[in-house]
Write a structure and sequence with these properties.
Layout lengths: L4 E3 L8 E4 L10 E8 L5 E8 L5 E7 L4 E2 L4 E4 L5 E2 L5 E6 L19 E6 L8 E5 L7 E6 L5 E7 L6 E6 L13 E4 L6 E7 L2 E6 L7 E6 L9 E4 L6 E8 L3 E8 L2 E8 L5 E5 L5 E7 L5 E8 L2 E9 L8 E5 L12 E9 L5 E9 L9 E4 L14 H10 L2 E5 L8 H6 L7 H16 L8 E6 L1 H12 L6 E5 L18 H4 L5 H7 L20 E7 L8 H14 L9 E6 L10 H18 L7
Parallel strand pairs: 30-31, 30-32, 32-33, 33-34, 34-35
Antiparallel strand pairs: 1-2, 3-4, 4-5, 5-6, 5-7, 8-9, 9-10, 10-11, 12-13, 13-14, 14-15, 16-17, 17-18, 18-19, 20-21, 21-22, 22-23, 24-25, 25-26, 26-27, 28-29, 29-31
The protein binds N-[(benzyloxy)carbonyl]glycyl-L-proline (P0H).
The site of N-[(benzyloxy)carbonyl]glycyl-L-proline (P0H) has 13 residues, from loops.
């Protein structure tokens, strides 16, 4: 089931259910995909996703009455909600023209997103059209309302990186607030710009423009020329500035990624000067809550052996330390955190690049090869940070197993240089890094080939698919979840065209020639000797996955099974499982997550060389 939203009158008072999606579907497949409270807290706009689809239906809850307003905003996707400061309504994006099936089982591209303003209580058909770009059907929007309430900041993107920035001054009460004139701040797709806050006409952004490790800049909308920008927090030469959030009037809480560990600091908004460090263990910050108008912050921490802690800190009480507000306790029978070790190693990839990798396992007196789960992603500037996973714990607990998390190029662990090192024409580096990790683990006696399983999801599913084609001799088992397997056609389905920033556009000769070299679907082989036998392979997908359409997995498994059917050397099984009323992963109910983890662990039990200890 899904986790209900609860409310408390004060931090210490008892909780009561505020919104429980479990009551919205009998099987828990309706989930909250996003939510945003109005400035006065009287309303909460929230998105509902069904069967794991990216499609949202937006509803508005009256927080005092605990009931929803009558309107339901449909055909919403890849859109946030930005309330105007008068709490009368919000901006959001909608695919008005989308027709046919709209439940996540379709493969059709979503095109022509339009920006609307919704006035509470009105019918969605009355919503004011704010912006549309029919000449650019793949453009989509993210909006912010400035902290002062005066500006609408419109971020436009068409791939998963780089965005343009426009702004408009919001009309005052008496005028029709929505005869908006959008003016450019940045009118080229050349970098990422995320709004942080503003001081009058000076807008603060987190950006990688001329800063591969990111920095904080200030753009004066009255003079937005680049030569006039200032940089209160310059780029760090090694650590990556992941994000910045303005709190307590004149402070920025900033999060750095330092060798795949998060560092949390408070800095001065104007000078960038360090005010405070927030001590953290090896792990990652998975969320922060705070406002410029408030001195309190809440931040979430997670790590391999810590499912989740929420810390509370009040800048109005600087002498006090952050306190634990909530901790998910791992009350697993016999589980003790200090029975396990977390080590970070650096191994050489095929081109001698040093790749970091976390290795987690139960402390043991003698080092002997154990079942090992090697998990990777390697793309889209996404950093694989230390975080908690129930399947990982099950693997260690059931098989006395070892977990390995290499930070492959293509991710964001070392900023844009690391991302660029694993995308477009350099994408093969990601697969090389992953295969080198497997060789490191066997060479250093952590495991053996017949005990080694690889796992990846989505772009990580591509990783697994490419690696079992290229080096089937390295692995005992492979699990690819919701993978991108057809690299010549990925851009034709749902949101796939947005991934051209990592993969290249298959319609362009140079990228077609690169993609066909590692596209899983197009590089299946007939095993002609024992070394070419595919490892035991489990392909998982879901019927409402509209991020990565299940057709990728269907085609890949069909090609694999056809290729191996006449080979005397293919004794390992190659399986496909399609989950129903499920999607790419977000919003999956706990019951389904447990069921999928059980499928995977059972698959490993049957296919790996394991001597089960439980
Ligand atoms: O496609 C992605 N993100 C990338 C993504 O989900 N990928 C990229 C490859 C497959 C899949 C994955 O790895 O999860 O997000 C949707 C989106 C929203 C707004 C603007 C552009 C795109």
């Amino acid at each position: 089931m899904g986790v209900p939203c609860v409310t408390q009158k004060t931090l210490g008072s008892p909780e009561s259910i505020f919104l429980d999606t479990n009551s919205m579907s009998s099987d828990g497949t309706t989930a909250i995909s996003q939510f945003k409270f109005s400035e006065d807290g009287a309303f909460m706009a929230y998105g509902l996703s069904e069967s794991g689809s990216d499609w949202n239906k937006i509803r508005i809850r009256n927080t005092k009455e605990g009931i929803d307003l009558p309107e339901i905003l449909e055909k919403v996707k890849f859109s946030n909600v930005s309330w105007t400061k008068d709490s009368k309504g919000f901006f959001y994006g909608r695919y008005t023209d989308q027709d046919g099936i709209i439940d996540g089982s379709e493969t059709k591209l979503a095109e022509n997103q339009k920006l609307y303003y919704h006035l509470l209580g009105e019918s969605p058909h009355q919503d004011t059209l704010i912006a549309e770009f029919p000449e650019h059907p793949s453009w989509r929007f993210k909006t912010d309302i400035s902290d002062c309430g005066k500006y609408l900041i419109l971020s436009i993107s068409h791939t998963v990186r780089d965005n343009m920035l426009y702004y408009a001054e919001l009309g005052s009460e008496e005028k029709n607030a929505f005869q908006l004139e959008l003016k450019p701040i940045v009118d080229k797709f050349e970098a990422d710009f995320d709004y942080i806050t503003n001081e009058g006409s000076n807008l603060y952004f987190h950006t990688n423009k001329d800063a591969p490790n990111y920095r904080v800049i200030v753009i004066d909308v009255n003079n937005p020329a680049e030569g006039n920008w200032t940089t209160p927090i310059p780029e760090h030469k090694k650590d990556v500035l992941e994000w910045a959030k303005c709190v307590d009037g004149n402070k920025l809480v900033v999060c750095y990624n330092c060798d795949v560990k998060h560092i949390l600091q408070a800095r001065d908004l104007n000078t960038g000067k360090l005010i405070r460090q927030f001590g953290l263990d090896i792990g990652s910050i998975n969320g922060i809550s705070g406002k410029k108008s408030n001195s309190e912050i809440f931040y979430g921490f997670s790590s391999f052996l810590s499912p989740g802690i929420i810390f509370y800190y009040d800048f109005a009480k600087p002498s006090e330390k952050p306190t634990v507000l909530r901790e998910i306790s791992l009350n697993l029978e016999g589980f003790r955190r200090d029975n396990y070790s977390v080590e970070q190693v650096f191994y050489k990839s095929t081109d001698d690049t040093d790749i970091p990798m976390f290795i987690v396992q139960r402390k043991r007196d003698i080092a002997e090869p154990r079942p090992c789960l090697l998990y990777g992603y390697g793309g889209f500037n996404y950093s694989l940070m230390p975080s908690f996973g129930i399947l990982s714990l099950m693997f260690m607990d059931t098989f006395d197993g070892v977990l390995a998390f290499p930070n492959l190029r293509g991710g964001g662990e070392y900023g844009m240089e690391w991302h660029n090192g694993g995308r477009m024409l350099s994408k093969q580096n990601v697969f090389n890094d992953f295969q080198a990790a497997a060789e490191f683990l066997t060479k250093n006696n952590y495991t053996t080939k017949d005990r080694l399983a690889i796992q990846g999801a989505s772009n990580g599913g591509l990783l697994v698919g490419a690696c079992i084609n290229q080096r089937p001799d390295l692995f005992g088992a492979a699990v690819a979840q919701v993978g991108v397997m057809d690299m010549l056609r990925f851009h034709k389905f749902t949101i796939g065209h947005a991934w051209c920033s990592d993969y290249g556009n298959p319609d362009e000769r140079v990228h077609f020639a690169n993609l066909i070299k590692f596209s899983p679907l197009h590089n299946v082989h007939i095993p002609l000797n024992p070394d070419q036998e595919y490892p035991s392979t489990l392909i998982l997908t879901a019927d409402h996955d509209d991020r990565v359409s299940p057709l990728h997995s269907y085609k890949f498994v069909a090609a694999l099974q056809e290729a191996v059917r006449y080979s005397e050397y293919q004794l390992n099984p190659i399986l496909l499982r399609v989950y129903t009323k499920a999607g790419h992963g977000a919003g999956k109910p706990t019951k389904m997550r447990i069921s999928e983890a059980t499928d995977i662990i059972t698959f490993f039990k049957k296919t790996l060389n394991v001597d089960c200890i439980n």
